[in-house]
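Let's practice the habit of predicting before peeking. Look at the sequence and jot down your guess about where helices and strands might fall. Then scroll down.
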Amino acid sequence: MSEIYFFSAEADRVDRDRIHQWLSEQSYWAQGRGRKQQDAAIDASRNYGVYVRGTGEQLAYARVVTDGVTFAWLCDVFVALEARGQGIGKMLAAGVMADLDSLDLKRILLSTSDAHGLYAQFGFTELTEPSKMMARMR
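Done guessing? Here is the structure:
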C-alpha cells in the first residue's frame, strides 16, 4: 500500500477545502462547522494526512491538539468515503501515533462512536475511571 499512498505530517500539504467539506458535510461531529473555525482549528493543531503518491490528492485527515509535553487530543479523524476499507485509516493512525510517540506524552485522548477496534490496535482503551472526566458543552 505504501507504493500507492503515503502519510505526511507536513501542514502545508493539508487540503483545507477538502477537509472543511468532509467535516462540515459528512462527519457526525462537525456538521455545519464554519470554514473560519476549521481554518483556525487547523492553524492551532498538529495536522496529518494520507495522500495519493504522484497526485498528492488527500484521502484522510487527522489533527491533534496538544501542549507537546503532557497531553494530546486526537480529533477530526476522517477518511474519504471512496477510500474506506483500504487500510488508509490504519496508515493514518500509525503515522499519528509514531509522530506523537516522539513527544513521550503521558496521555492521549480521543472520542469515537464507531472506530474502537482501530484505535485499540494502537493501545487505546476505555477510560478506567470515566466518572473523573467532565465536559462543558455549548
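How did you do? The two ends are 41 Å apart (CA to CA).
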